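Annual report, structural modelling task.

Input specification for the (2R)-2-aminohexanedioic acid complex:
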Amino acid sequence: KKYNVAILGATGAVGQEFLNLIEERNFPFAELKLLASKRSAGKKIQFMGKEYTVEEATDASFEGVDIALFAGGAASKTFAPAAVKAGAVVIDNSSAFRMDPEVPLVVPEVNPEAIASHKGIIANPNCSTIIMVMALKPLYDVSKIKRIVVSTYQAVSGGGKEAMAELEEQVKAINEGREVVANILPGASLAKHYQIAFNLIPQIDVFKENLYTKEEMKMIDETKKIMSDDSLRITATTVRVPVYRSHAESVNVEFEDEISVEKAREVLAAFPGVTLTDNPDEQVYPMPLETSGKDDVEVGRIRKDYSIDNGLNFWVCGDQIRKGAALNALQIAEYMIEHDMF
Ligand code: 11C
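The model returned the following structure:
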């Protein structure tokens, strides 16, 4: 069986990765509609030997669509109701519906059982959340987790293709002795912008009243929902780094019961979607350059936290545009196809 697929936000970084993955994974599509804002409408995209014209998204765009892949952003909220009404299943990469109790928030390797309760929309978690829970789940299955302290090192791809272009241009400007211009990071709509090249910016998304950023609160709230554990205590610091497309995270976990480093390595190596990259003797550990363009998240630097009982530290890296966004969303669709859920 083949499915009619629409991609909303087809011209952005996540939209383009949807196309790469649909081809790479031989995703069973019949018709394919590429949708975007008015600004990108009319653009031609070559895909699998055929030329597609990007159409301006309207409420009428979703007639006959089985699977609507929403790349993210404000358009999700605008078009999800019409897409659902037209009978499509929306797999949404924006933050608009993630914490809605009616909407499953899914990482297929972690909580696929949540998909069945969907009412037309399934939310794809935030990229840094996905990458972290991929490493937490096999450990949680060995012992309940009490507390998590995470610090992230997030690639500019999280800010979209404009942020990637900004890093590239700033590096060029510095090398050529030109003035460095910052218009996008830490967020295009924010009052101030800072240079990311050769810098770190400890702000991703807007600040909330509690002095955390929205990105930090996403990691806290979404992780609890995905792991179905409101008792989890989590604190997060999220930082933008001058890396193109893989997020890295330093994670400290306190478990209820002791987990040895050997056991942690064993369960992580066996978990689908995770590669164990952990051999300090050979200087082997995950790095964002190595995980870029790859599907698996990589975990390494696993070691005891000797400052508490039952604590482990680890380091996880994953491609932000793949597992952090487009791949996870497509895997949700693949799971539904496999389990006859359309
Ligand atoms: C970043 N995590 O790295 C963000 C991008 O809620 O899906 C994705 C924002 C989201 O900037």
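The pocket of (2R)-2-aminohexanedioic acid is lined by residues 72, 93, 95, 126-128, 154, 158-159, 204, 215, 218 (CB under 6 Å).
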